[in-house]
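Hey, quick one: can you model this chain's 3D structure?
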Amino acid sequence: MKNLYDDMPNGYQETIEKGMNAVRYFSRSMSYGKGSKEEQISRLKKEINEADAIIIGAGAGLSTSAGFTYSGERFQKYFFDFEEQYGFHDMYSGGFYVMRLEPETSWAYWARNIYINRYMGAPKPVYEMLLELVKEKDYFVITTNVDHQFQRAGFDKKRLFYTQGDYGLFQSVNPAIQKTFDNEEWVMKAMEAQGFILDETGVFQLPEDGKISMRIPTELIPKCPDDGSDVAMNLRADDSFVGDEGWHRASAAYSDFIRRHENLHVLYLELGVGANTPVIIKYPFWQMTLANEKAVYACLNYGESFCPEEIADRSICIDGDIGEVFEPQIS
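Sure thing. Here's the predicted structure for all 331 residues.
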């Protein structure tokens, strides 16, 4: 049976193939940028102004710069009881730990996790600063982040491709149901059920006595509205990930954007991409920069800013906090 999306370009598969080709081609010789940090920041500003198009590749480091940390103060405020009871110290570890717990407790944890990482605004306006820098340009965003912060900041939804899913969506565990389901209403109910209180700004806070429940009522455990099956987060953990119609259209839009600009002056602007999934953004950006002599590659990352020697003359590598690099450019 023919799939509805078979006739669409598959930007995700194409970018993976480019990434794998880069692995085979590039040497292990790396450059950390040419010139001082100030000189490279000046070059970046010039490229943003002069490029025909900007392709933004965003990883977890961009959200970290915006204050979306998985440990520390945010974790302590919303998960202090889970930490005390179960001994994990960050949201990432907690997501794995609660899988072994009964669903009333596991889903209580996930309601909090989804809420603060999807439905709360970022503590720092780094995404807004990025939009200010590129809003007049022909841009497209590919990201492995699942926190929806690009749309919250005002980026054009038609220019975004969330490759790894969305904290704001559930999918059925039934593989026959290849759809996703919005979870905002459920999240708000699950937060209230645990005792969190909406403040005057519409943000959930701890009650004055600090007493909250680590469980949700059994009847509030989320189920698929189509067949009543269990649901899971719409996150790419394995081959059960559901790419819905919106995902496939975004994948096709990314493919089309790459094709239309492949021989123009393109700035491949990589922001906070680490070593977890380099074949989705980092390696393909290297490969596309090499293939187009008009292209420029820029990598902004804290402690991990580098490029292959083969494209070092057309690369900008800035080691530092992304927000601190952006702020002087828009003031």
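One thing worth noting: The first strand starts at residue 30 and ends at 31.
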